[in-house]
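Q: Please design a sequence for this.
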């Protein structure tokens, strides 16, 4: 099934011609952004410098820290009056990365989601329950508008209240769901405890956090669905950038909209097809916030075989990160964010440890932090107040519930070299 068959099955020669045309337009659009105008000028590049796809490598990389440096609107290439929506994603400190969208951006984004959903066989006959956050996180609204565009009956159930989620699946005849894979396992166990019949489900779309083939088999067995992997990133629109087809042998990235490279994360050198490295993406159709050579930090490779579905080359499933970012229940968390919060609270010290576990299929993060020397005077009530204050400060910045344990000064490890403050004890990735 195809949403836009001519574009999804475009032949390689025509695709390269389209990519070059759109790359030129993107570089011209970037010229409206102060950061890029300065970087391009330093490198002796102007919009007219791009005459072939190979010229892409003349352009500088863009990193997440660059976007944070432009907070809030420094990367907009259009007047703010043309921006009709704003999303944000976690930054490496307290400031988030801001992503703006024009009407054209939202139209293209929803079109990509509709393309993905149609590819896996969903139609207007399906009832789609979207069980992800509808706030500043892009997963909620991104899938919502794409599902509506594809003609599906769409239920914006958002997150939480698992019992009610299961009741909606039953009452509304839901056939397809979208959520994080860890929440899907929790949902399956809750349905079993409730002795609820959710056999009407046939399709599960899972993303926003890493998951293994073992988890796929578990999900398919417990929920009775065919499970599909979804990849996206707010800076590149959100979800919809790449998606599994029914062959389940990699993710189709839509080459008419995204120009992809794989690089060595240490040297920045471009790697060949079949070599695993960091994914670098240049969006080709973004209006409000164009980017060039955006370093995603995600590790994958371009597969060297075409897909039998006719949609061309794919990316391998993602196997990790080139940086220290954690994904906790679908939310990006940087250790530097945690440190930034703790340094603002004088009653706790500079030493902390972060532990990430999977408990009943859900990610849990526990932070041990030392109390500042001389603070504790023997009043347990004071410690409880401090603990509550630290938890609230972390939740405000991370938008995530954490457990905090206050420990004695000097009790946490000290590091002579590079500190290792994060212990990820989840298995299966």
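A: Design:
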């Amino acid at each position: 099934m195809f949403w836009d068959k001519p574009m999804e099955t475009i032949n390689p020669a025509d695709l390269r011609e389209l990519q070059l045309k759109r790359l030129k337009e993107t570089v011209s659009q970037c010229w409206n952004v102060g950061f890029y105008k300065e970087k391009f000028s330093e490198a002796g590049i102007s919009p007219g410098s791009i005459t072939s796809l190979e010229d892409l490598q003349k352009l500088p990389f863009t990193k997440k820290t660059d976007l944070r440096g432009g907070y809030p609107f420094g990367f907009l290439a259009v007047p703010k009056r043309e921006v009709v929506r704003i999303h944000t994603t976690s930054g490496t400190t307290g400031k988030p990365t801001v992503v703006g969208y024009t009407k054209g951006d939202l139209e293209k984004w929803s079109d990509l989601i509709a393309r993905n959903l149609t590819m896996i066989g969903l139609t207007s006959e399906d009832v789609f329950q979207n069980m992800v956050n509808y706030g500043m996180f892009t997963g909620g609204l991104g899938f919502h508008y794409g599902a509506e565009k594809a003609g599906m009956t769409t239920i914006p159930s958002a997150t939480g209240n698992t019992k009610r989620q299961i009741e909606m699946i039953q009452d509304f005849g839901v056939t397809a769901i979208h959520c994080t894979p860890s929440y899907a396992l929790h949902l399956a166990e809750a349905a079993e405890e409730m002795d609820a019949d959710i056999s009407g489900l046939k399709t599960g779309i899972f993303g926003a956090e890493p998951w293994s083939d073992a988890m796929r088999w578990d999900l398919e067995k417990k929920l009775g669905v065919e499970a599909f992997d979804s990849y996206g990133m707010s800076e590149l629109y959100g979800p919809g950038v790449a998606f599994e087809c029914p062959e389940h042998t990699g993710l189709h990235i839509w080459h008419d909209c995204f120009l992809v490279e794989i690089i060595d994360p240490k040297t920045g050198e471009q790697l060949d097809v079949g070599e695993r490295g960091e994914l670098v993406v240049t969006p080709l159709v973004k209006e409000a916030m164009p980017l060039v050579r955006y370093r995603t930090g995600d590790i994958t490779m371009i597969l060297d075989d075409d897909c039998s579905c006719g949609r061309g080359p794919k990316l391998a499933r993602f196997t990790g990160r080139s940086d220290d970012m954690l994904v906790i229940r679908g939310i990006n968390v940087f250790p530097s964010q945690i440190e930034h919060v703790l340094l603002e609270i004088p009653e706790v010290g500079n030493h902390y440890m972060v532990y990430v576990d999977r408990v009943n299929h859900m990610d849990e993060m526990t932070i041990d932090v030392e109390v500042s020397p001389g603070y504790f005077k023997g009043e347990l009530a004071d410690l409880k107040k401090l603990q509550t204050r630290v938890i609230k400060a972390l939740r405000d910045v991370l938008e995530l519930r954490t457990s905090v344990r206050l420990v004695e000064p000097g009790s946490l490890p000290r590091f002579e070299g590079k500190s290792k403050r994060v212990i990820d004890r989840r298995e299966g990735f």
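Q: Thanks. Anything notable?
A: The CA atoms of residues 185 and 396 lie 27 Å apart. DSSP finds eleven helices and 20 strands in the chain.
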